[in-house]
Amino acid sequence: MRRLSDISLHLNQLKYLSPPSSEDQQCSRSFMDVKAASNGVSTIEDRILRITGYYGYYPGYSSHQREEASENHTENLNPDNNVKTRCQSCTSTFFKIFWGFLVILSVSSSWVGTTQIVKVTYKNFHCPFFMTWFSTNWNLMFFPMYYSGHLASAEEKQTLIQKIRECSRIFGEEGLTLKLFLKRTAPFSILWTLTNYLYLLALKKLTATDVSALFCCNKAFVFLLSWIVLKDKFMGVRIVATIMAITGIVMMAYADGFHGDSIIGVALAVGSASTSALYKVLFKMFLGSANFGEAAYFISTLGFFNLIFISSAPVILYFTKVEYWSSFSALPWGYLCGVAGLWLAFNVLVNVGVVLTYPILISIGTVLSVPGNAAVDLMKHEVIFSMVRLTATSIICIGFLLMLLPEEWDEITLRFINRLKEKKNEEQTEDTTESSVHTRSRSRANGTVSIPLA
User: Fold this and answer.
1) Sign of dihedral through CA atoms 126, 378, 105, 395?
2) Phi and psi (nearest 5°) for 338?
3) From CA 241, how far away is CA 244, in angstroms rounded?
């Protein structure tokens, strides 16, 4: 007991000198261990730390530190936690790849279906702008579909007004006002309509395979506009991909000679790809990135703008007999609804796919629509592809895939090559060591000693 009182006196003196060193803290902890049985460790240790003026002290400090130490010790002794973490990461990666595979099939199938149904519709109905207007109106259903999914899956459900306020922040902190609606929605709605209208016009002149391949050039145009307007990083491989896309366009135009429907169809398809690229770059410039809810809200506003302000255009074309039909009952409503439904499904899948899987897989699904359309054209429409068209289509698709390479692709490739070299060197070293050990053992067995050269 006398020794304990001396220790207490020593700690009181340290209060007026300086914060305790590590040795003093160990001494105080040993003192607490002695008194643990009668008075409780944490209370006495807290008092000593308070008296000595320990920096960073707060009530319950000692018990908190002890709990952390015991937790860390438990984690170190229990390797199952690391195994669980690895298993969870592997499972999430597997599901992302699985969903990515389904998204690739769905995206390519919806785009192929849209293109082929348009070609079938043209046999009896030649009104591409009306088809564009009718399909764009279906964008109004995007946000209600998103909100229905929110009600079905979210744990904390929001009201419709709350969700609209949250998603309308894509237009700014104040949300969607009439001024912003006209200022932001109008140019994007016009570009959306122009992209789809030019695409449908190109399908009247070219095969579905050619149009879908030429539309893939929009990736190259996005890179050029982003580099010029948004000052994105310059990448040599993407310049090569852009040159390949332009080469494919020229070859596609040359396939049937620079005359007739071929050159007009190529110009229309390239125009559709250009307006699509301009839409994406302007979206990134003025609105930035958007989550799934904001994208659904924005696309629904495009459908609303189309219904209110662009509905006059089909009426004008009808009365001027540019796009004329005898009666509404004569319209192929089944094909029109099929085109609109698949177009809406394509837009929904593109935005849902970003949430479920890797964005690069969605782009791969888009480029896979080219061989999909080629298979349908070959089997159903008996289209004969010339060698020039096949070469042009292949060059455009390769350029599209080069555009998907990440910005650090060269560093990743060098790291991969270095790892392969290191593994090869390690294997050679192990083989040399094993051979030298084997030589030594044979020499000892024969009663001689040999010195290996390696």
Assistant:
1) negative
2) -65, -45
3) 5
Maximum Cα–Cα distance across the chain = 113
What is the token pair recorded at 347? Answer: 């837009």
Beta-carbon neighbour count of residue 414 at 10 Å? 11
Query: 49, 287, 61, 57: which is closest to 168 by C-alpha?
Result: 287
Q: Which residues contact 429 (CB under 8 A, 6 or more apart)?
A: none
Query: CA–CA separation, 183 vs 179, rounded Å?
Result: 6
- Helical pair 80-121 and 186-205, crossing angle rounded to 10 deg: 60
- Which own/partner pairs from 80-88 qualify as long-range (CB within 8 Å, at least 24 positions apart)? none
Quote the CA–CA distance of 68 and 62 in Å, as a whole number: 10
The residue ranking higher by pLDDT, 37 or 163, is 163
The whole-angstrom separation of Cα 340 and Cα 119 is 14
Q: What is the rounded distance in angstroms from the CA atom of residue 241 to the CA atom of residue 217?
A: 9
Express each pLDDT in 204-234 by its tens digit.
999 999 999 999 999 899 988 988 888 887 7
pLDDT tens profile 167-185: 988 888 877 888 888 888 9
What six digits make up the tokens of 246?
């332009």
Asked if residue 218 lies in contact with residue 277, where contact means CB atoms within 8 angstroms, the answer is: yes
Distance CA 2, CA 4 (A): 5
Q: How far is CA 291 from CA 214, 303, 364, in A?
A: 29, 19, 21
Tokens 């593994």, residue? 423
Any residues with CB less than 8 A from the CB of 76 and at least 6 apart, and which?
none
| φ, ψ (nearest 5 deg) of residue 405 | -65, 140
